[in-house]
Structures are given as structure tokens and as C-alpha cells.
Inverse folding.
């Protein structure tokens, strides 16, 4: 909603504190105001101040710019306040249910029965909010049919306030009540809740038992300007509905819960489940042969190590196996490790004994045929695969390794090795929580783009390194707090100057000197996760092991952890995390950036691998194996 003159707003508890500040902030934008409060003297003063501000935007009005209505929000008279606002301004665009009180006496000293102070607190803070929300919805639907409601919650509704459990309970109720009203967005009415930590108001001054040490530890009182900024964001942002905005000095404006927390209880959409069961038509006549890329000699130069081989299809399909028609295959930095034999072991030491072997780690496609005893997978089902041999037109895969997906799109390829590495590594190896500082190296690459977004979604401050202005621009669009473009800035200098206490979590994929810098930048209790070392994969001798003298002493001195992560060892989590990533993507919470350079057909795979290692790629590099079938899918 655009905040502009001519709109109207009703604010309960508008005579003082946050309510007064919001009344005047809206008045400064020329918005007509109804101040609802029990205090007549203060309420009239606020209305008079608002009147002066609003009048600057309007001439020759036949009605007052601001109105005061004395009202106890717990009584039935509150409905008259909404009716009077509607009669005066002809509609209601914004309603802020701000009236609230606390219980400054200890709970065990409070009375019981109808005169109990805790009961009055619950009635004002929760029951009246429900009542006023219902009234606002009725007025909005009866007039313009749309509007924004903000219910005033509190950080005490997100975590316990030991000084006032009744207040905490009432605000917790407001939070969940408001978040449950998301469906009203479909009717044009958005209801959100604002949850600031302590703001210096008359309400707070009534508490004599506030722990001043605790208040200092959380950064002191929240400036009123932050509260106003949060409220205006909830009003203006059309995407915010059923949203809870938490405001702290420590973390600024943050939506709660984070998508990572939300995913722990959110039930997968039945609509999404239905989409995942879609099948696509296939030509029933399968070819007698197909092409694939094989490694014929061990070499870290992928082009020199591989060739295209035509082979028979091998029908019928083996028992408990399926045949997958590959549509898109993903390109990874580790392709050169694979072609050099790094992922194979031989007791005799003769790695060449494994030759030839199929190349490629990941792909999406369509099931083209199934073997006996495969009941859960049907021909035409879109799937993802993460087994060796995906650089091929077809591949036969054990059914237990198949990952069903909603659509066989190239974006899903990006979610496989790249997305799953980020998702699982941050959860398991990094043990990522919220409120941390997270550094992602090579952040504009395939896995880095996922890591920075997942770290932000979890409620962390994210720092990212990249090489180039285009990459830096992408990372800023993805929400990175501090982008370090190593072609313009010295990474070591920035980390030392701007993060003197160190980095809590480092997601490291570059290796070499970058690893050294990251290790030195790690905070006390910090965790550094090694997911690769791309800078060491290429070169005359390929991947050469590095020595890190003094590593144990460094880790010991600061209780730090350096953890390795290899995706293959977490295969039991692939489907769960792939579903989570697709949920984030389909709901718009996660962006999947694909490199714009187009690679088509198996003969372009070597070009794609070399392009990835050139450092020029931005996002995930994917090869389209069958463009004709992919185009047909996109038109459906």
C-alpha cells in the first residue's frame, strides 16, 4: 500500500508511547487519523498535533483531519469508534491495534477472580485485539474491500518475560492470532504483527523489576524510529501478510520465524504434492543406442580425459532399476577430480584399472522405462539423479537412488550437488543457528549462491567473497550484508578491520591462500566447513595436498572446529533437503541463479567444464542434453 494523503487510519492506544508516535508519523504523510484512547487529555493533544500536520496536505475539508474518541477497548463501545471513523472518512485503510497494558505486580501477589490484574492485561492486550481486528475487517470489507491491520505484539510474545508472565502470554497470543490470519490476504486484507523489544514508554516505566543488566545486554531501549520504520514497512510491502516483524538493537528488523524454523512444522502443500506426481508424455519407441561421455584416460584436464561413446541401450531394464532420459546435466568443479581418478581407490595402486568409467554427477530427466519390482515410479515421472554417469542421453539407475521432483527444470539441477551441499553442510557440519556471522567464499558460484541465501533465511549476517563487479551485484541482490570483491579489495584487510571479533561460520570452497585467511579470521568457537578447494583442482599436477603447520595449535587456542563435508556421505538426507529447497524456491523465498551461457548437447560438456574453471561463471552452469524435449516440457 502506498502511504499517501487521503488514506485513513484508526489507532488504538494512540494517546501515548508507540501509538502516539505512529499517529504522528502517519499524519506527516497526510493520512487522516482517528486516535482511540482511554486518556482524554492526552488523546486530544495528539489529535491536535496530527491535525496540524495533516492540514498541510488538504484544503477546504468539510470534516476534521484528525479525530479523538475516548474509549475503553475492552468494552462494547469500541464498535462505535470504528463506526464513527467510517462515517467520518468513508472507509478504513489502516488499523493499528496498539492499546496495551502490563501487570507490574508479581503474579503470586495478584488477585484472583474477575478483578485480577492479569485478567485485565489479557483482556486489553489479546481479547481487545481480536475484537478490534474483527471490527476492522468488517469495516474494510464493507467499504473499499481492502486494507492493512497491524497488531502490536512484543518480543515478550516470542520469548518469555519473567517480570510479567501475563503480559508475555497475551502478546504470544497476539503473535499466533495474527499469523493465523494470512488467508485474509486473498480477500485484500493484510494483517501483520509488530514485535519490538523494550521501547522507553510509560508502559515500561511502570515496571520496577526490570533487570537493567539484561536491558543493557540486549542493546538498551529500541529507538522509536525503528518501530515506526517497521510499521511503515508492514503497511507498504504488499507481500507482507500474516508476518511477524521482530525489532531488536542487536539484529535490526527481522521476520520471525525464519523459513528454516518454519519448515520444521509447516506441512508440505497438497498442491505441491500433486505437482510432484505429474508425468510427461514420452515416445514409446526407445532408441537402440545412445551416447554418453566416458573417462578413457586419467587426467585432470577433463577434455583430454574424456570422449563420447555410443553404446546399446540394454533392454529390458534390470530388476529394481529404471531408465532415465536425461534432459539437463549439472557441471561441477569436481568433474576434473573425477576425471583424474581422485574419487577412486585401488588396493594395487593401479587407478587406471577402473577405466573406462562414465562421467557426470547430477541430472534431471524423465523416467523412460522401469524394471520388474519397481512399483512406486511410473514412466513419465520427472526425477533427479545423483549417480555417476549423468553426462549421457540415457542412464540406468537403481530405483532406490531416484529422487522424484516436481518438474525436470534446470533450476532443479542447481539444487542437487550445489544446493544440497549448502543445505546439508550448513545444518550438519556448520551446525548453523541464527544470530551468527557467516562467511561464504566463491559465493557467486553454484553452491555459494545457495549458502548465502540459506544463511540469511536462518537469520544470520552474511559476508561473501567473489571476483568481479557482476558477481558482487548478484550477491547484493541475494541479500548479502557485506560483499568483498577480491579484485577491488583485499579480503584479509577487510576481515581484520571490519570483523575484529572473527567470523562464526565459514563455508569455504576455494582452498589455498583463501583457506589460510579464513582460518585466521575464525572467531572463538567458530566452525570452518571445507566443501571443496577449487583453486587447487586445476594446474600442471592437478590436486596437490597442502600442509598447514600449527593448525592444531590454532584450533586448540580458540576452541575452533574445521569440518570436512562430502555430500556422498549424507545421501540419506538428499530427498528431505531437496524438498525443502524446492519449497523455498516455489514460494519465492529462494532464488536460483543460472549462468546465462548456454551449453547444448554432450559435445559442449568439456566447454562447460572449462568455462566453470575459468572463474567467469555466475550461478549454476548446466548443459541441456536434449533441447527439443526440454522445449516441449516448458510449453506444457
Amino acid at each position: 500500500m502506498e502511504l499517501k494523503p487521503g488514506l485513513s487510519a484508526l489507532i488504538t492506544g494512540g494517546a501515548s508511547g508507540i501509538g502516539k508516535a505512529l499517529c504522528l508519523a502517519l499524519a506527516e504523510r497526510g493520512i487522516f487519523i482517528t486516535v482511540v484512547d482511554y486518556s482524554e487529555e492526552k488523546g486530544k493533544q495528539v489529535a491536535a498535533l496530527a491535525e496540524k500536520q495533516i492540514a498541510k496536505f488538504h484544503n477546504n475539508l468539510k470534516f476534521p483531519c484528525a479525530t479523538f474518541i475516548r474509549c475503553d477497548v475492552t468494552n462494547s463501545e469500541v464498535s462505535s469508534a470504528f463506526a464513527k471513523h467510517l462515517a467520518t472518512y468513508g472507509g478504513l485503510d489502516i488499523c493499528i491495534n496498539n492499546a496495551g497494558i502490563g501487570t507490574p505486580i508479581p503474579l503470586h501477589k495478584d488477585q484472583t477472580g474477575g478483578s485480577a490484574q492479569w485478567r485485565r492485561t489479557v483482556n486489553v492486550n489479546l481479547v481487545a485485539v481480536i475484537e478490534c481486528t474483527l471490527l476492522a475487517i468488517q469495516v474494510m470489507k464493507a467499504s473499499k474491500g481492502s486494507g492493512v491491520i497491524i497488531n502490536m505484539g512484543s518480543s515478550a510474545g516470542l520469548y518469555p518475560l519473567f517480570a510479567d508472565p501475563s503480559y508475555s502470554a497475551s502478546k504470544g497470543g497476539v503473535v499466533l492470532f495474527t499469523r493465523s490470519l494470512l488467508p485474509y490476504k486473498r480477500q485484500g486484507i493484510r494483517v501483520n504483527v509488530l514485535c519490538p523489544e523494550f521501547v522507553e514508554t510509560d508502559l515500561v516505566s511502570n515496571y520496577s523489576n526490570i533487570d537493567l543488566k539484561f536491558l543493557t545486554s540486549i542493546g538498551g531501549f529500541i529507538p522509536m524510529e525503528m518501530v515506526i520504520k517497521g510499521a511503515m514497512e508492514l503497511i507498504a510491502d504488499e507481500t507482507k501478510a500474516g508476518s511477524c516483524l521482530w525489532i531488536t538493537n542487536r539484529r535490526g528488523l527481522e521476520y520471525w520465524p525464519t523459513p528454516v524454523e518454519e519448515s520444521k512444522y509447516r506441512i508440505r502443500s497438497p498442491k505441491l504434492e500433486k505437482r510432484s506426481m505429474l508425468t510427461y508424455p514420452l515416445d514409446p519407441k526407445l532408441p537402440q543406442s545412445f551416447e554418453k561421455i566416458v573417462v578413457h584416460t586419467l587426467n585432470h584436464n577433463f577434455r583430454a580425459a574424456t570422449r563420447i561413446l555410443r553404446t546399446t541401450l540394454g533392454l529390458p531394464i534390470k530388476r529394481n532399476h529404471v531408465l532415465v532420459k536425461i534432459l539437463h546435466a549439472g557441471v561441477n568443479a569436481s568433474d576434473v577430480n573425477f576425471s583424474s581418478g581422485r574419487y577412486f581407490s585401488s588396493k594395487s595402486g593401479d587407478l587406471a584399472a577402473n577405466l573406462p568409467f562414465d562421467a557426470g554427477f547430477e541430472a534431471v530427466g524423465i523416467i523412460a522405462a522401469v524394471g520388474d519390482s519397481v512399483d512406486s515410479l511410473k514412466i513419465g515421472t520427472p526425477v533427479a539423479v545423483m549417480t555417476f554417469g549423468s553426462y549421457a542421453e540415457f542412464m540406468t539407475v537403481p530405483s532406490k537412488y531416484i529422487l522424484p521432483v516436481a518438474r525436470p527444470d534446470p533450476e532443479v539441477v542447481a539444487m542437487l550437488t550445489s544446493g544440497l551441499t549448502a543445505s546439508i553442510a550448513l545444518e550438519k557440519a556448520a551446525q548453523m543457528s541464527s544470530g551468527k556471522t557467516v562467511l561464504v567464499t566463491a559465493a557467486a558460484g553454484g553452491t555459494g549462491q545457495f549458502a548465502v541465501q540459506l544463511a540469511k533465511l536462518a537469520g544470520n549476517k552474511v559476508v561473501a567473497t567473489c571476483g568481479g563487479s557482476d558477481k558482487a551485484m548478484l550477491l547484493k541482490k541475494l541479500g548479502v550484508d557485506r560483499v568483498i570483491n577480491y579484485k577491488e579489495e583485499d579480503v584479509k584487510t577487510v576481515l581484520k578491520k571490519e570483523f575484529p571479533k572473527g567470523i562464526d561460520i565459514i563455508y569455504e570452497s576455494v582452498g589455498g591462500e583463501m583457506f589460510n585467511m579464513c582460518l585466521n579470521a575464525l572467531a572463538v568457537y567458530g566452525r570452518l566447513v571445507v566443501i571443496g578447494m577449487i583453486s587447487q583442482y586445476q594446474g600442471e599436477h592437478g590436486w596437490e595436498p597442502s600442509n598447514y603447520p600449527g593448525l592444531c595449535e590454532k584450533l586448540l587456542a580458540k576452541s575452533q572446529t574445521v569440518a570436512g563435508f562430502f555430500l556422498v556421505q549424507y545421501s540419506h538426507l538428499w530427498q528431505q533437503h531437496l524438498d525443502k529447497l524446492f519449497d523455498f524456491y516455489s514460494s519465492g523465498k529462494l532464488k536460483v541463479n543460472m549462468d546465462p551461457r548456454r551449453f547444448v548437447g554432450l559435445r559442449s560438456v568439456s566447454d562447460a567444464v572449462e568455462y566453470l574453471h575459468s572463474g567467469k561463471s555466475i550461478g549454476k552452469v548446466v548443459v541441456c542434453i536434449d533441447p527439443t524435449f526440454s522445449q516441449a516440457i516448458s510449453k506444457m
